Amino acid sequence: MDGVLLVHKPAGMTSHDVVNRIRKIFHTKKVGHCGTLDPEATGVLVLCIGKATKALQFLMSETKEYQATLVLGQATDTYDASGQVVAQKPFQGVSHVNAVLQSFVGSQEQLPPMYSAIKVNGKKLYEYARNHEKVEVQPRSIVIHHIELLDQHDQFITFRVQCSKGTYIRSLCVDIGKKLGYPAHMQKLIRLASGHFRLENCFSLEDIEQGHYHMLSLEEAFQHFEHYVVEDAQIVYHGKKIKSDIDHQVVVCNQEGQVLAVYGPDGTGYLKSIRGLF
């Protein structure tokens, strides 16, 4: 079984838990995911199975879309509802919520949560946090493309955000709270999209176990990428370069439309093979 499977990850499972479950269902160890989701988050988890695992690095979409709910008046050490409360402030109302949300649109530096899997000196941040060890955390460059207020009721704010890969929505919730004058944490998170892969096209683990799913072929998974068609597929099979002034990665296909490889510029007027997908 080879292909790309869009899973609707449930709350309470790590992304690796989902990978293990799919490995058991399909009786294969060759399963990998294209971008992790926090255990309590739900939504789009893109999995590559079998030969499609060769495509993992190319399907880790640069743009993500989420729906999040934050709570004003309470901060936690993990920045979400699973953590210990570290600060509180009675909620006394809030205004200009939409203006504050819009102030986050654009390029910026974001400080990731201490409870995250980012590595510093070969050790994950959450390992430092659990051991109460101090470590300097560097901010990361992110982009908020679009943010929209969906609902605001008392201390609860729900919004939709489209952002760059690597953005921590937990940190965004905390930063929004700060601008509104309150400690805050993220209560709920749904990943609505990872690149072109959307939640409405995902399948629950229960559906998959019962055989109710559609496995995307590499041709379907790469349909939104730029394609380069070769007349002689042997060029690709042998990893030969292709003369071209294209200055970015392309998906190389044969004349029947079958995806063969991903090629990229070598800087000398040729495209070189980055990864064969056959």
Automatic annotation (TrEMBL):
Q: Which reaction does it catalyse?
A: uridine(55) in tRNA = pseudouridine(55) in tRNA
The protein's superkingdom reads Bacteria
The entry lists its GO molecular-function terms as:
RNA binding; tRNA pseudouridine(55) synthase activity
- Identify which residues the record assigns to the active site: D38
Q: Which Enzyme Commission numbers does its entry carry?
A: 5.4.99.25
| The UniProt record lists the keyword Metal-binding | no
- Sorted alphabetically, which SUPFAM superfamilies does this protein's record hold? Pseudouridine synthase (SSF55120)
The tRNA pseudouridylate synthase B C-terminal domain extends over 170-213
Q: Name one Pfam family in it.
A: TruB_C_2
Q: Which Gene3D superfamilies does the record associate with it?
A: Pseudouridine synthase (3.30.2350.10)
Q: Is Isomerase among this UniProt entry's keywords?
A: yes
Q: Which GO terms describe its biological process?
A: mRNA pseudouridine synthesis; tRNA pseudouridine synthesis
Q: Which family does it belong to?
A: Belongs to the pseudouridine synthase TruB family. Type 1 subfamily.
Function, in words = Responsible for synthesis of pseudouridine from uracil-55 in the psi GC loop of transfer RNAs.
Checking PANTHER family in the record gives: PSEUDOURIDYLATE SYNTHASE TRUB1, TRNA-PSEUDOURIDINE SYNTHASE
Task: Write down what this protein is called.
Answer: tRNA pseudouridine synthase B
This protein's gene is called truB
